[in-house]
Protein backbone atom coordinates (compact mmCIF):
# COMPACT_ATOMS: atom_id res chain seq x y z
CA UNK A 1 0.00 0.00 0.00
CA UNK A 2 1.15 3.53 -0.73
CA UNK A 3 -0.28 6.90 0.31
CA UNK A 4 0.77 10.23 -1.19
CA UNK A 5 -0.39 13.83 -1.23
CA UNK A 6 0.40 15.99 -4.25
CA UNK A 7 0.09 19.70 -3.58
CA UNK A 8 0.23 21.56 -6.88
CA UNK A 9 0.63 25.35 -6.99
CA UNK A 10 0.53 28.19 -9.53
CA UNK A 11 -1.26 26.01 -12.07
CA UNK A 12 -3.14 28.83 -13.77
CA UNK A 13 -0.10 29.27 -16.02
CA UNK A 14 -0.72 25.74 -17.36
CA UNK A 15 -4.40 26.53 -17.93
CA UNK A 16 -3.55 29.74 -19.77
CA UNK A 17 -0.97 27.91 -21.88
CA UNK A 18 -3.91 26.18 -23.58
CA UNK A 19 -4.79 29.55 -25.16
CA UNK A 20 -1.86 29.13 -27.53
CA UNK A 21 -0.98 25.40 -27.33
CA UNK A 22 -3.62 23.17 -28.90
CA UNK A 23 -1.64 20.04 -28.00
CA UNK A 24 -2.68 20.40 -24.34
CA UNK A 25 -5.77 18.30 -23.55
CA UNK A 26 -7.57 20.42 -20.97
CA UNK A 27 -10.86 19.03 -19.59
CA UNK A 28 -10.79 20.35 -16.01
CA UNK A 29 -13.12 23.14 -14.90
CA UNK A 30 -11.66 26.48 -16.01
CA UNK A 31 -12.59 30.18 -15.81
CA UNK A 32 -12.64 32.33 -18.93
CA UNK A 33 -11.80 36.03 -18.90
CA UNK A 34 -15.48 36.65 -19.65
CA UNK A 35 -16.35 35.14 -16.25
CA UNK A 36 -17.93 32.03 -17.79
CA UNK A 37 -16.78 28.53 -16.80
CA UNK A 38 -16.09 25.44 -18.90
CA UNK A 39 -15.16 21.85 -18.08
CA UNK A 40 -15.89 18.17 -18.62
CA UNK A 41 -14.90 18.30 -22.29
CA UNK A 42 -11.83 19.55 -24.19
CA UNK A 43 -11.68 23.33 -23.80
CA UNK A 44 -10.83 25.09 -27.06
CA UNK A 45 -10.40 28.85 -26.46
CA UNK A 46 -11.75 31.18 -29.11
CA UNK A 47 -10.30 34.42 -30.49
CA UNK A 48 -6.98 34.20 -28.64
CA UNK A 49 -4.69 34.78 -31.63
CA UNK A 50 -4.27 38.50 -31.02
CA UNK A 51 -4.90 38.73 -27.28
CA UNK A 52 -4.63 36.02 -24.63
CA UNK A 53 -6.88 38.07 -22.32
CA UNK A 54 -9.85 38.17 -24.71
CA UNK A 55 -13.23 37.17 -23.25
CA UNK A 56 -13.15 33.64 -24.73
CA UNK A 57 -9.64 32.86 -23.47
CA UNK A 58 -8.81 30.83 -20.36
CA UNK A 59 -7.94 32.85 -17.26
CA UNK A 60 -7.19 29.89 -15.00
CA UNK A 61 -8.57 26.82 -13.28
CA UNK A 62 -11.88 27.14 -11.42
CA UNK A 63 -10.35 25.49 -8.33
CA UNK A 64 -7.03 24.20 -7.07
CA UNK A 65 -5.35 20.81 -7.02
CA UNK A 66 -4.25 19.00 -3.88
CA UNK A 67 -4.53 15.33 -4.73
CA UNK A 68 -4.68 12.66 -2.03
CA UNK A 69 -3.68 9.36 -3.64
CA UNK A 70 -4.00 5.87 -2.14
CA UNK A 71 -2.86 2.76 -3.99
CA UNK A 72 -2.77 -0.90 -3.00
CA UNK A 73 -2.03 -4.25 -4.57
CA UNK A 74 -2.89 -7.74 -3.33
CA UNK A 75 -0.92 -10.67 -4.75
CA UNK A 76 -2.66 -14.03 -4.45
CA UNK A 77 -0.54 -17.17 -4.82
CA UNK A 78 -1.93 -19.93 -7.03
CA UNK A 79 -0.88 -23.57 -7.45
CA UNK A 80 0.64 -22.64 -10.82
CA UNK A 81 3.85 -20.59 -10.79
CA UNK A 82 3.18 -19.26 -14.29
CA UNK A 83 -0.27 -17.95 -13.33
CA UNK A 84 0.05 -15.54 -10.39
CA UNK A 85 -3.07 -13.50 -9.58
CA UNK A 86 -3.13 -9.91 -8.36
CA UNK A 87 -5.71 -7.23 -7.61
CA UNK A 88 -5.03 -3.50 -7.49
CA UNK A 89 -6.80 -0.28 -6.58
CA UNK A 90 -5.74 3.33 -7.13
CA UNK A 91 -7.88 6.12 -5.63
CA UNK A 92 -7.43 9.88 -5.98
CA UNK A 93 -9.35 12.73 -4.32
CA UNK A 94 -8.76 16.41 -5.07
CA UNK A 95 -9.28 18.27 -1.80
CA UNK A 96 -9.16 21.70 -3.48
CA UNK A 97 -11.71 21.14 -6.24
CA UNK A 98 -14.46 23.76 -6.52
CA UNK A 99 -16.90 21.15 -7.81
CA UNK A 100 -18.12 17.80 -6.51
CA UNK A 101 -16.45 16.05 -9.44
CA UNK A 102 -13.30 15.42 -7.43
CA UNK A 103 -12.77 11.63 -7.26
CA UNK A 104 -11.06 9.02 -9.41
CA UNK A 105 -10.65 5.28 -8.98
CA UNK A 106 -8.97 2.55 -10.99
CA UNK A 107 -9.59 -1.13 -10.19
CA UNK A 108 -7.52 -3.85 -11.80
CA UNK A 109 -7.04 -7.60 -11.91
CA UNK A 110 -4.12 -9.41 -13.50
CA UNK A 111 -3.60 -13.12 -14.18
CA UNK A 112 -0.33 -14.58 -15.41
CA UNK A 113 3.14 -13.17 -15.88
CA UNK A 114 5.35 -11.83 -18.67
CA UNK A 115 8.84 -12.81 -17.52
CA UNK A 116 9.96 -15.85 -19.52
CA UNK A 117 9.55 -17.20 -23.03
CA UNK A 118 6.03 -18.58 -23.54
CA UNK A 119 4.47 -16.57 -20.70
CA UNK A 120 0.98 -15.07 -21.02
CA UNK A 121 -0.58 -12.32 -18.93
CA UNK A 122 -4.17 -11.03 -18.95
CA UNK A 123 -5.09 -7.63 -17.46
CA UNK A 124 -8.45 -5.95 -16.92
CA UNK A 125 -8.84 -2.41 -15.57
CA UNK A 126 -11.92 -0.36 -14.73
CA UNK A 127 -11.28 3.39 -14.70
CA UNK A 128 -13.45 6.27 -13.43
CA UNK A 129 -12.04 9.81 -13.42
CA UNK A 130 -14.27 12.78 -12.61
CA UNK A 131 -13.72 16.22 -14.16
CA UNK A 132 -11.59 17.79 -11.40
CA UNK A 133 -10.14 14.70 -9.73
CA UNK A 134 -6.70 15.03 -11.35
CA UNK A 135 -4.93 17.46 -13.64
CA UNK A 136 -6.10 16.51 -17.12
CA UNK A 137 -2.90 17.48 -18.95
CA UNK A 138 -1.05 14.79 -16.95
CA UNK A 139 -3.68 12.03 -16.99
CA UNK A 140 -3.45 8.77 -18.97
CA UNK A 141 -3.44 10.02 -22.58
CA UNK A 142 -4.22 6.65 -24.21
CA UNK A 143 -7.60 6.32 -22.54
CA UNK A 144 -10.24 6.83 -25.24
CA UNK A 145 -10.62 10.51 -26.14
CA UNK A 146 -6.90 11.31 -25.79
CA UNK A 147 -7.10 11.04 -22.02
CA UNK A 148 -8.39 13.91 -19.97
CA UNK A 149 -11.01 13.68 -17.24
CA UNK A 150 -14.79 13.13 -17.00
CA UNK A 151 -14.28 9.62 -18.41
CA UNK A 152 -15.39 6.14 -17.41
CA UNK A 153 -14.45 2.88 -19.07
CA UNK A 154 -12.49 -0.32 -19.23
CA UNK A 155 -9.35 -1.59 -20.84
CA UNK A 156 -8.16 -5.11 -21.44
CA UNK A 157 -4.68 -6.28 -22.33
CA UNK A 158 -2.91 -9.47 -23.35
CA UNK A 159 0.87 -9.79 -23.00
CA UNK A 160 2.81 -12.63 -24.63
CA UNK A 161 6.55 -13.37 -24.52
CA UNK A 162 7.47 -15.13 -27.80
CA UNK A 163 11.23 -14.85 -27.30
CA UNK A 164 13.48 -13.91 -24.40
CA UNK A 165 13.49 -10.13 -23.87
CA UNK A 166 10.58 -9.60 -26.31
CA UNK A 167 7.01 -8.90 -25.16
CA UNK A 168 4.02 -8.47 -27.47
CA UNK A 169 1.09 -6.52 -26.02
CA UNK A 170 -2.44 -6.21 -27.42
CA UNK A 171 -4.63 -3.69 -25.61
CA UNK A 172 -8.04 -2.12 -26.16
CA UNK A 173 -9.67 0.81 -24.33
CA UNK A 174 -13.42 1.38 -24.15
CA UNK A 175 -14.46 4.79 -22.78
CA UNK A 176 -17.47 7.10 -22.35
CA UNK A 177 -18.09 10.47 -20.74
CA UNK A 178 -19.30 10.26 -17.14
CA UNK A 179 -21.44 13.39 -17.68
CA UNK A 180 -22.13 14.02 -21.35
CA UNK A 181 -21.19 17.64 -22.14
CA UNK A 182 -23.64 19.80 -24.06
CA UNK A 183 -23.09 19.42 -27.78
CA UNK A 184 -21.31 16.06 -27.51
CA UNK A 185 -22.57 12.58 -28.32
CA UNK A 186 -21.54 9.77 -26.01
CA UNK A 187 -20.92 6.59 -28.01
CA UNK A 188 -18.32 4.25 -26.60
CA UNK A 189 -14.90 5.20 -27.93
CA UNK A 190 -12.62 2.25 -28.71
CA UNK A 191 -8.85 2.53 -29.06
CA UNK A 192 -6.72 -0.50 -29.96
CA UNK A 193 -2.97 -0.69 -29.46
CA UNK A 194 -0.36 -3.27 -30.42
CA UNK A 195 3.12 -2.91 -28.92
CA UNK A 196 6.42 -4.76 -29.16
CA UNK A 197 8.67 -4.19 -26.14
CA UNK A 198 12.36 -5.13 -26.15
CA UNK A 199 14.15 -5.44 -22.81
CA UNK A 200 17.91 -5.42 -22.25
Report on this model:
The chain is an all-beta fold and 200 residues long. The chain has 1 helix and 11 strands. An 8-stranded antiparallel beta sheet has the order 1-5-6-7-8-9-10-11, with no helix packed on it. It has a 3-stranded antiparallel beta sheet with strand order 3-2-4. The protein is elongated. The mean pLDDT is 91.
Structural topology:
Elements: E1 2-8, H1 12-17, E2 30-32, E3 37-38, E4 58-61, E5 65-76, E6 85-94, E7 103-112, E8 120-129, E9 151-163, E10 166-177, E11 189-198
Antiparallel strand pairs: 1-5, 2-3, 2-4, 5-6, 6-7, 7-8, 8-9, 9-10, 10-11
Main features:
3-stranded antiparallel β-sheet; mainly beta; elongated; 8-stranded antiparallel β-sheet; 46% strand; 200 residues
Which spans have pLDDT < 50 for at least 5 consecutive residues? none
Side-by-side strand order of the widest sheet:
1-5-6-7-8-9-10-11
**Helicity range:** under 10%
Order of helices and strands: EHEEEEEEEEEE
How do you describe this structure in short?
By secondary structure, the protein is mainly beta. It has one helix spanning 12-17, and strands spanning 2-8, 30-32, 37-38, 58-61, 65-76, 85-94, 103-112, 120-129, 151-163, 166-177, 189-198.
Amino acid sequence: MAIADYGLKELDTIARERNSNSALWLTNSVRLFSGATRGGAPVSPASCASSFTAAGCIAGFRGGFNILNVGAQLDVPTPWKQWPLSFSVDYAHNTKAETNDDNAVWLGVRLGRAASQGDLRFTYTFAYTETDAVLSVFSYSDFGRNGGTNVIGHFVALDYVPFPHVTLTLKNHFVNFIDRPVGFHNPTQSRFQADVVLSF
